[in-house]
Amino acid sequence: METIINTLYGLPPAPPRTRTGPMRILCVGLPRSGTESLSLALTRLGYKTFHGWDLVFDDAPYIQAWAKLVQRKYATPGDDPVTREEFDALLGPCDVVIDSAPALFTSEIIQAYPEAKVILNTRRDVDAWHCSAMSAFVDAGSRNWGLWWVHLFEAELFWLWRVYYGFGYPGLFGGRNTQQGLLCNGKRVYREHGFMVRGMVPSERLLEWNVEDGWAPLCEFLGKDVPDEPFPRTNNGAGFVQRVEAKIGPRKKRAFMNMALTAASVGVLGAAIVLGNDKRSVWWPVIQEVPAWIKAKWV
């Protein structure tokens, strides 16, 4: 199966990025815990963040690299943890990482950057978090059959699907799939995630923070002056769905183009097989070239 996947969707390896300064902050709360508001606030304080949206809109080879790391952690037998060098090669010069990457690799990323401060961003109402996660990750994500179908026809969507719905969220929430994992285990995993972080990080390096806390505890923890402006508030449930659609839309268009190309090519292949099932036929070279032609013409 991996051979087929690499043949259809495989991309050249991503050029390693270079870390130019220390990793300063790890925001390890699960997605839908004020991550975008926190990212905007930290950017305002002068940090360079790597948020889940940065993963979603990264260049395709880097998305593929994240997908392979997620598969290695959650679906590959053995003990082969992700290393600091592997994180650096994907994160590059950012000094804050937040949302998807630290949520999916919490223990590994805490161990990789022991000098960094850690923010455990949470929501006080676990039921509200669970409802938001079900809406974002299941209703608008794994249970979106249109998205599932088109991800088969576009390489970036294919690797993104594997990051989140193929291996990431099913592995994080301990389910056969994202829906089953979140529905049965989501609240427990949310609480246990916090227990794990508190057990791994010394109290002097850890801030437990909620978006309702605003600037004051955040700036005190980081040694920054409180900005004279409201704390950023963004990314409610409806806004999340709109952002996903805006960012995934162009990839869907490419997938539909590839789908049409594949359908036309299969028609040509079928006609060639019917007309030339004898290997000595003039149609035999056409039959041999169609699979490679499809891959070469995909956009």
Automatic annotation (TrEMBL):
Keywords on record: Membrane, Transmembrane, Transmembrane helix
InterPro entries hit by this protein: P-loop_NTPase, Sulfotransfer_4
Alphabetical list of SUPFAM superfamilies matching this protein: P-loop containing nucleoside triphosphate hydrolases (SSF52540)
Pfam families per UniProt: Sulfotransfer_4
Transmembrane region(s): 255-275
PANTHER family per UniProt: NAD DEPENDENT EPIMERASE_DEHYDRATASE, P-LOOP CONTAINING NUCLEOTIDE TRIPHOSPHATE HYDROLASE
UniProt protein name: NAD dependent epimerase/dehydratase
